[in-house]
Structures
1.
Amino acid sequence: MNLRLRIWRQPGPAAEGALTSYDITGVSPDMSFLEMLDTLNEQLAERGEEPVAFDHDCREGVCGACGMVINGQAHGPERTTACQLHMRHFADGDTIVVEPWRAAAFPVLRDLVVDRGALDRIIGAGGYVTAPTGSAPEAHATPVPKESAETAFENAECIGCGACVAACPNGSAMLFTAAKVVHLGELPQGAPERDSRVLDMVGQMDTEGFGGCTNTGECATACPKGVPLPSIAAMNRDYLRAVRRGGGR
Amino acid sequence: METALPTVLGMALATRTDRRPSPARLLWRSTIGKKAVMAVTGLIMLLYLVSHLLGNLKVFAGPDEMNGYAHWLRTVGEPFLGHEWFVWLARCVLLAAVGLHGVSAYQLSRRDLAARPVPYAARRRATARDSYATRTMRWGGVILALFLVWHILDLTTGTVNPRGRAGHPYENIVATFSTWYGNAIYVVAMLALGLHVRHGFWSAAQTLGVNRPRRERALKATANALALVLTAGFLSIPLAVMTGVVS
């Protein structure tokens, strides 16, 4: 396959960026999107040009490191991560536009790499269980109803890639925050801090400059892990209850 | 992990001593709280619209019925309430609802737009979930706010009404819908209203945490039904005047 790529190139956080066109040859339909970028970088290096910087780690769709907006869609046309998106979903001769996640809370560091520290700070504000629990407890020590376990797991699948923020027209981190709030709030270990957790995490989310939720549903459509939209309703429910109760402290 | 643990404990101990702001302040400062304000005020306005529609449909029963109803509205609660007290009470509640709804929408919109300072170069494909109603909430709201001003000047104060006689709503309604601009403004506003209610009702349910996976379909169906009934119901009046059913 031969493709034309239009990739966002930006040398540094404060530098001006622009979309730059590259023609790439010899792309196999079995390559992942990241392998295709590797191939491009090899070709760029051979020509003595600066390779395209992009985040990546596990390359098997579980770590959440990779992420880019491909033709206007977070992680591209398939509902998966960019590393698990294969070139067979594109046609020979296609022009593909590749941009970094766009959000005020995600400053571009270089090319397609953005600083997602805002998400870490939301987790740091309360996305944990305070009690030190040591190693993994025995599975049946604390019984969890099946429905709660399933809801918690569905939300625990979040890999923090930031696609929800990138896809949201408001650059909102509601789905990300909701995934953690619902995951921990649903389990007995997380229940004691349920009120303070949701208030602290939402407070941090607002401080980071993410937008609000207008219920467009773009986040849940883009989420490679299928965190459902009703999780946002569940977080809203938790938040409003926590405010009524006076914040759990 | 060994080194991270004391930091986590230290944070938890440190945050335990600080006080949270009052619930009202907490709500007004947070995005979720402001959305909740929008949801509640939106539902108040929606409730009013349903009763407003039921009242307006009396236009089909003739001038005596319609004008009698308008007169009765001013006597509700008497002798406990004074003349027109009920109407003014309702107006105060509605004014507060409109004001809070608008201010919240403005502040949230500014925040939302600032959160995506650099737009995407590639146009994103509209997904099934991102409907026309969702995308037109902001400008649709502005259209509705402008219409509200026109509507009050037209049929409450009678300032811009071609007839504008106080205490004769039936004749005023016929007069305004006998002009092309009166009809045009009204039709555009009612279409905007339908779209606004369609996304707004479901959005309010989501914001107030009423939505759950198994309720999603029922809530969306209710939103669509409400939007359709309100738009069709309100539009039936200018249509009746235009076709001569009401004259």
2.
Amino acid sequence: MSPPDTSRADSARPLNGAGEALLTVRGLKKYFPIRGGILNRAVKRVHAVDDVDLEVMRGETLGVVGESGCGKSTTARLLMELIEPDEGELIFDGCKVGSRELPLKEYRRQVQMVFQDSYSSLNPRLTIEDSIAFGAQVHGTPKREALARTHDLLARVGLDPARFAGRYPHELSGGQRQRVNIARALALRPRVIILDEAVSALDKSVEAQVLNLLTDLKAEFGLTYVFISHDLNVVRFVSDRVLVMYLGKVVELGEAERVYTHPQHPYTAALLSSMPSMDPDHRTEEPPLAGDPPNPIDPPTGCRFHTRCPSIRPFCATREPPLADVERDHAVACHARVPASGYHDDAAAVPDPEKITA
Amino acid sequence: MVDATQTATAPLDPVAAPVRSEGYWRSVWRRLRRDKVAMTAGGVLLFILSLAVFAPWIAPQDPLHGTMLMRLRPIGTEGHILGTDELGRDMLSRLIWGGRLSLLMGVTPVIFAFFIGSAIGITAGYAGGIVNTLIMRTVDVFYAFPSVLLAVALSGALGAGLGNALLSLTVVFIPPIARVAESVTTRLRSSDFIEAARASGASALTIVRVHVLGNVLGPIFVYATSLIAVSMILASGLSFLGLGVRPPNPEWGLMLNTLRTAIYVQPWVAALPGMMIFAVSISFNLLSDGLRSAMEVRA
């Protein structure tokens, strides 16, 4: 295995996300049409990802959390350019993706993805080594060389190449398969790996091992992770910064510990209070949020959270709050956190979102 | 760190040759061999095929000549174990020789349709969107005709003869195979490993070659095998109508047609070609059923 590129390795961990942006996303939108009626026209659209801006800093782990259906996986697929965005652009390391300086094929070499379902993400007819070596061969590496590197990678992710290289996916356990998927993602020597619920399907002990492996690999190869999960504990454990999504929008973005200890958006607060407490004196007696998220086909006007928010003002239903910094490296999209929004003008009692946590 | 599911004792030795797992087709063959019904059907087919291939050496008499004095003899006649047909020709010899044309007409159209239909279906399935709609709706136009009607109409339009019958049968079988290929490919296209292959920057052609073909050709092949029986019956039907093989060449469908007038005189002799068609068709069906279950691997 080649020694990790020093220029990447030394960018180890930007403090408080104060690093340099490696991947910048601007105005990303994806609406899925729902076709129907005569002529099969798009009658409605699912607002899966709606105007998302984000930056992934060099060397960080950016956690992405949210309920099911909030657009996490769509965001991952958009970042990977597996689906075409309706609007928005990706800028990787200063170059626009798809431009002449950074064609799509080259971008895909830099950014790789690990999927949730370890079984369906491996071709059942190919041996492990053929699956891993495929990407490198696509990029012109001779087969022998690609296989040699594959064996190195297998050893690196903790699978003895002598025993596993020639096997088929169905002969491996879930944890082993996910290691194979990680090895495949590493095969192209990427700089960013998008982990879309990559450990969610594993049982807890294996999950911990794979998480440790991911941490080791990150240091060794100087990787940057986008870690998508619905598991709040895991995200807290791995992330430097956390991005909270609700109905295709970013509602809060900030340094992980800060977000977890001092959530600013009422949705984040509710989400965090839904985590089961280890302390029997702090049982979660009532669900912090009532009902399901609204249908993304017709998202609520104004603030998308206003239908479930415990502390709304009438104008929340009409005015959409921008994602604004409330403190250093901590942005939130809530009128209550923006002094000039008028939120505090018409009422004295402002419920503190941190109280919801309790 | 060591995965809990693997033994911690095995040292990492990159020099040792990797353990080769049993390949997919090898495991299919192993399971198929245990399937008695499929193996019997395969044996019957092999037997009939070798009879057809070695017909000149096996057939006891000339299939094209007979004497009118010996016409329509019953089964068990001396010198004609299976009797004679309406022109006094030896039935056994004609059945053996007839296997050549019947099997040819059963298998050839399906082979051609397998390649053409798979190509169409995989293209449509992988491309998706408007390309899929254009291709598949065109295919549906052909599929909408009942297969017998389409075969008869095409053969009739092209004129009688073996080549035209084969051509029309091929056209008949392309739509169903293309539809199966399209549905299998469409289902596969959204799976994560195809996405992963796209994410590695591979071109559509490479992905189809490496990741799609190996996964879709199996199911299409199984389906195509079951079509051989249909093809044989259709081919016999075309010959029966005088659109395929012409007399005096022996072909089971044609023999059935000419002997049908003798059904009250020698019903058993008249039924023989039909029995052959039945035996071959059901054998192909049973074999493809066995193949289908042998190919279903889910660990």
3.
Amino acid sequence: MPLNKYWPHKTLLWKDWKISWSIFVPFFLFVTYATTFSLLFAITDYIASGWPGFIGPWPGFLHFENRLVSEPWVGIPLLLFTIALATVSLGQERDRETLGLLLAMPYSRQDILFSKVAVGLVQILITLAANALLMTLIVWANAGIPFPFGTPDIWGWALRSFLVLTFIFCFTVLIATVSGTAWGSGILAMIFLFFPAGLYLLLETNFNFWISWHYPWFYAHSYWMWRNIFSDIALLATVPAWIMDFSMFGKYNPVYLYGALVVLSAGAYALARFLFTKNPLENNGEVLVFERLEGIFKLGVVVCFALLGGPLLTALAGIHNPGPLVLSLCYLLAGCVTWFLTNHLLKWRRST
Amino acid sequence: MKIVVHELTKTFREKTALENISLEVSPGSIFGLVGPNGAGKTTLIKIIMGLLLPTRGFVSIDGRLVHQDHRLKARIGYLADYQRYYPGFKVEDMFRLYRESYETWSPERFQELCRVFDLPENAKVKNLSKGMRTQLAIILNLAFRPALLVLDEPTAGLDPVLRRQFLTILMDEVAENGTTVFISTHNLHELERICDHLAILHQGRLLGLESLEDLKQKVRKIQAAFANPLPAGVLQRDGILNVEQSGRVYSITVQDGLDELTAELRTFKPLFLDLADISLEEIFIHRMGGEGYAIKQILAP
């Protein structure tokens, strides 16, 4: 078995490292600012305030993720940077038409994808490991300060973040193999990554309207039991939420959860590799690959917008408790408008 | 390397870009492809390079399907119609990318080419002009001594001196290494200098495919002057592509039946009668210009 089956081509690694540098540097600086620098600022403040009993500003650095719940400016950019790393590596090659240059060279499609994924994951790993190392050194150098966490917690955070971001990266690469441009891939990845939680919220909001007309159900124990089950499933299936909401790990064993994440990441990469090798995206000069799935995608968009449009239109019209007829009309209106717009948008996209 | 294009059809949704194209390119030959804009030249080249898949038919290179065989690409040089590079890369980075990607990269050949095309190694590729980008592509694709060169409008953007130098290099490459060249261009004058075979593509269909030598042998021009005008009907026969008359002087382009026509014209006691060479451009104007083809688009100034 040739070695390059297991190891990316070094020239491609060099090339991919070079073209993703523009995203990697801000990603690295951002994570460093949000972690190592935040720790340094906290220590400076602690010393300046005369060594009080506890060190802030976090509820506890023990779980880095906890901090992200109250500070979405950290979690959201972390997610966006990871998506950008993945889309830039593949989508930008298409946008700039350099993929043609690469495909005319003596590399297989597997070689090309393998190198991109390897570079992206190494960049995430370097960023997290470097910051974990820096924070460890800072903690060791300030042994007198009562940190609410220890070195194992820092490295635990780095490992958990790596696993979550690896999944987000691999999933985005998977989307990028079946989508057109870098922007398109990024937006689609965001939609699908948040789809479980988004769909759950959409269904729950609409369901609440319908059962409110049969109020005894609203107080039924079974309703709340199923609601909690579905809510947990939606939250667990929304992986980006794992770095923003730590509460679910009180209920479920993190080993199983992260184990599942590793399997899912590997599965996303394997599927991306299969699709990138098989799909005729570049081969046919098309924007969307699987033409036969277009109808399903359109139907999905229409259903989601109808469900969104129902409550939204009634709220905009100032109707707080719409009856079944009004709500159904709103669904119909939102669905028809979306169907019309989607068709015209696709036609316009093709004509251009 | 031998290229076989067999009953190739390519459609993009409703549009047929190529229709039932068949041709063969012999190893060590220079094969020219001409056609107006939108004729399907770039599509055909992309299919040959494995960058597009045909809807029907196939292209094989040395009996192998290139889109399934990335190792085959290690022996193929490709100049696209427009050179796309990584914007953040410098010229030297592109050299490195190719040097490390092709095992047959020749430092000596690279130095030779760099002497002809003087490119600033430290310049960013995004700052290069179209002509300089083409020069860079020429260096990159000739330095690894390819067995097959696929060139899509390779001289676009080059000044006349560099254009001539490039064509000379190309002919040297064929003579020294037996490289096969598949070249698409608007410019018939260039092809006339270098090509062995020529194909004309128009609206996705192959209009003609001939050896240049045969073509020039077959199509000739008779220039003759007569004391009296020729009787009507003498020049109305199959095989005559064009007749121009200026006073008593006739200029007749003949594709078939040259000997018969010459013999007949001699019976009218011409004041003089000569056989003249005809340029490729004239051949195509006469063969296709009258049939409504966009021949002017094929003829670059």
4.
Amino acid sequence: MSRQTALSGIHQASGATFTDFAGWQMPLRYGSELAEHHAVRNAAGLFDLSHMGEIEVVGPQAAALLDHALVGQISAVAVTKAKYTMICQEDGGILDDLIVYRLEDDRYMVVANASNAEVVLDALRERSAGFDAEVQDRRDDWALVAIQGPQASAILADLTDADLPALKYYAILETKVAGRPARLARTGYTGEDGFEVFCDPADAPAIWEALADAGRERGLIPAGLACRDSLRLEAAMPLYGNELSTATTPYAAGLGRVVKLDKPGGFVGRDALAAVADQPVERVRVGLRPEGRRAPRHGYAVIDPTSGDTVGEITSGAPSPTLGHPIAMAYVDLALAEPGTRLEVDVRGTRVAAEVVPLPFYSRSR
Amino acid sequence: MSIPADLKYTSDHEWIRLDGDVATVGITAFAADALGDVVYVDLPQAGSAIASGDPCGEVESTKSVSDLYAPVTGEVAEVNAEVVDDPSLVNAEPFARGWLFRVKVEGDLGELLDADAYAAVVESA
């Protein structure tokens, strides 16, 4: 039996279709996932992300512990700011991608993917040996509601006294939303402006309903995981299990910028990552624009049309609701990764021509 | 979930309406709902021969793709151009304007389910 979030009753009353995801019963869509996708691009969408894994790292050496455990320089993150980072194995393979929020000098909130939260907790605890800092499993203490889209800020402004224009991308503050205490962060996974509201699960229904009511006239609708996936794909944001895995390093994923090799004291995975940092990777993450209407999907082979050899693999692909044609991300041989390169994808037994294109497929106008 | 009593069905969630020796084929409301918003249908060419049980096309949503299987053997007589242009008809009217193709049936119909038998398939899905 999978876990329900504090908002399950509301989702059921809204007629949501559910899916099992990482041990949670999560809303897949409420009505049309295309309508939900377009609402987030053009107005706003409301997401229940309570399955995400909140971990707090607390103590005088919290920063030092995270510098040791993660690939980024977490000690350099200012209080009230956040950083996108990764936790790697000794061999450089990615255990998870994370957002780390610095709440206080000696208190951080690490948000892990639901499917990896246990692994991240275990790794952080193991890596905390010798540090004066505590790793706390706070998953049960927080629900997470996200409001994403160009209207998100205007809708939220009705429900909080927080200075939203001053809350920059990748920043967090403690405030009240709909009169309930919350940690409000300007982060998301859709390629749009938006906010994530961490709150007490007991307060989640009130916050959800208040946001839904305040947003209705501005086009906000509840949005499920189906559109979250198509939104993040258009924005070329990696998904653990698709683009990221223990078999991949941050460099191959095109995310080498998150690795701070020269931070003082080293970190878990540093030697392995340093060894490959200046080496050409074998395969690298690219965007593909397939011809026609049929979308390549996760796991399909990418083929060099000249030699007929398999030169890569699709990690995510779908018909893009915003662009109106199929898009895909893939790992392909470095020599064939230049934008403009002509490749083919085996789409369920038929070879479909596809061109390497720059990522992201979609970026919002600012 | 609507399962019209006057149609025949397959366990692959397709429906068949027989008029003389011409079978009109579509996917059921249950299948359309499970797929989500259909954004593309890949249908067999008019004039092509299809054999019962063989894959003959695809129905694709943003989230997933599902093979179409020929529910009967015969020659494709007509393809629904309207649904090719506007695949959302598969979700909106799966048993009406969302029909996919018509087949001139050759030989026996084979084993098709009636509405009650198909309802049992849906129940157990």
